[in-house]
Amino acid sequence: MSARNSFQSLRLDHVGRTFGAMNALRDLTLEIKRGEFVALLGPSGCGKSTALNCIAGLLTTTSGTIWLDDIRIDTLAVEDRGFGMVFQNYALFPHMTVRGNIGYGLRMRGVTKAELERRVDAAIKTVRLESQADKLPGQLSGGQQQRVAIARAIAIDPPLVLMDEPLSNLDAKLRLEMRQEIRRIHKGLGGITIYVTHDQDEALSMADRIVVLRDGMIRQVGTPEDLYLRPARIDVAEFMGFRNRIHGKIAGVSNAPIHQAITIDVSGTMFEGVTMTPMSGHDVTAMIRPDDLIPAEDHQKGIEAVIEAIEYRGRDFFGSARAANGMELFFRSERPVAAGESIRLHADPSKVLLYDGQAE
Amino acid sequence: MSDTASQGSRHIRDIGSRLWIISIWTLLIFFIVNLFGIIGSVLMSSFATRWLRSWLPSGLTTNWYVSAWSEFQLSDILFTTFQVVGAVVLLSGLLGVPAAYAMARRDFIGKRAVMLLFLLPMLVPPITYGIPLATVLYQAGLGGSLIGVILANLVPTVPFVILVMIPFIEQIDPRIEAAARVFGAGTLRLFWTVLLPLLLPGVLAALLLVLVRTIAMFELTFLVSGPTSQTLVVALYYSVFAAGVRAVQSIDAMAVIYMAITLIWLIIALRFINPTQMVTRGKQARA
Amino acid sequence: MSSAPIPFRTRAAAHGFDGVTLLVIPALLLLAALFLYPFGYGLVLSLRPKDGTWLGNYFHFFSDPFLYQTIATTLALALPVTAINLLAAVPVAFRVRRMQHQRLITTILVLPITLGTVLVAEGMLNYFGPQGWFIRTLSLFGLGSPSSVKLVHNYWGVFLSLVITGFPFTFLLTLSYVSGIDVALENAAATLGARAAARFRTIFLPLLVPGLAITFCLSFVQAYSVFPSAVLLGAPAGPTRVISIAAYEAAFEQYDYSLASAIAMIMGAFQLIVVVIVLMSRSLFYRGPAAGAKG
Known about the structure:
A: alpha+beta; Rossmann fold; C: about 0% strand
């Protein structure tokens, strides 16, 4: 195809976007290599859709530059960028058949009729919609519409496919199916896919690399494993499901094989954990996933708390408890426990992530 | 495709689209300037002592308002106008809102035909059905009377209220009413405590629109009214028609009074509705 | 299970008739009495002319040039005005669609609609009159003089008044249809390489056609029934003797209600024909929702 498809990387260089006085996106610098599947992850309003729209050209940037190898693209009009985009509500043209929708981009490029047919057929085959090709979008189910939207975006053979929360309108079962489907299509294309989502599971299961955004700024870039096991900041950890946030003071330092381990003092009880950030003072915040906080058999270990609520999850129990200092804790238990019961909760030191300071 | 060539064609495209945008804005601004000119010349003339063969009048006065008030018996006309408008607003609310509720909540045989009947008076212009309507009202002895004027004005306003209210009622979840019934609210209580508060914003907007439209409704009132049942807009028509009988400034003073009344209500209405709603007629007219 | 007789209420409710349905009746009766009945009455009355023949009024209308020419006169005003209003409204609506101060513009444009034709006519007599600001401005730039440019009491007076009240109406309707089209559709077309002109041709136009057809109909019917401005701003005895003037004169100057009804019927029929033609041709286009496949 075109020379642009032999590109090596997409580079965002200090990209920013303001709306009036609001900074929707600040200083976004990122390089994405060909073949990568990158997820932009964050809560709503974090700037992830702004970033995507800036790359697509639907929004102009207010600062910074965007490059595809050595071609500067942020000054190009949307229609000159040639990226494929999948929209949240699919944005299928309601007056065109599935074929018409998928062939739209090729028609705009003045492709010959034979070539058009061939490439539309190929795209339809990729998303497995052979039997629906002559229907109007209104006659299709949500999942099928989704496939048409993807086929339409990839039919033009774009170097970049941009997806804006494409699965958010589907039901849970279909969503799981489509995750694999999108991965497969991405592999087949060999270009870059940038995928915007607020769903951690989606990002973890699909992406090669995840970019966590918050308040318009990058908070962490890393592999799914990095993010899941080693969130770099408290807010990222919280977003990745570390619901227990425990404040304490440094009580001792030891050098474990991999990480530096610190013992902290939480209102008299000792907790051991792995340091994630350099410590500047005595104040420390420990972050623990509910699944890793479990009742201690040993009566010397862990924080004492009273169980407030408990729910049965099939394999185990999930509960919330309140510690003596008023802190709420979420935990998992394999043995039956009851509300009102007093227990001690602890976690394996490797699962306790320690961050500097106690600020937000 | 060389870089300079593509940049060149882009440049031409940019100039073309900029010219296009400028010409559209010029068109719109030209229209608005003339519109303000039309309104402004009425306003200016109503305060002019003498205004002939010059850009601006030779002097300003408010005397024309005093003379227009007595010459055209404006107090009588205004009283008639308020009676007509008040009655039309009230009646179209009382007739239109329940009908809209039934249309929004029930699916009955013949509903499409009923809907068509509600749509037609909005699609057929008043002068077309106004002549047979006036004939019938004169036959019934209501021609020229206040009641006749009110009845004639209900023909477009009741369907208008219905068409505005149907989508509004449809977006109120019927489960809210069901919930109220589950808690034992009787039909009357249901209406007062649940439905009315929910409907009020929509009713208010619809009736304000009816009010503004009825003040300005010329054709039907003109065809049906007699000397004692003229509204302001009809009186204005007669005085413009008989231009030369009265001083033009006096007519303009009446026009300004008419304008002021209409605009006050328009401003109030626009607090609750979008200007585009003045012309769209509910979703059925769009389908 | 032997069938106990189903109470009438239950049977009625199954067809959608219950207490709530009855709420529609007062409005229905009113419109039957004040809209349907007069139309029927007018039709019957029109078939009972003074000369006693059956279709006498209609023969009279189509044989008297003073009467039948009103149709041509009305069409000569209504068709060009509607076309111009619509052609201007579409590009303006596309410009205004993404504007921040959209409401300011729509509010200004709603003024002539609210004020109505009578007030606009009075204002135009001042403004476009021989000593009015408009012609003064023209002569200031050497583009015309009071003796060479006449804009009131002729065809152009009525034409302009129909533009001034008609354009905002057409524009606001068009705007509501244009804003009804999901912005994402345009964005999608742009990412697929469609330039502005192609986006308009391939996305907006097909989706807008049904709405524009309705807009055309409503605008045309309004222009076709022009009355006060044709009298006040035109030459009601000659060049702007539109059909509504003929009907009015028959009824209220000659007191020939039978002929007046016949003219009203003819007026209604002509409107109906144009509306039906336009709406029929609209069915050749896509008519579903324009908001994207999933609302």
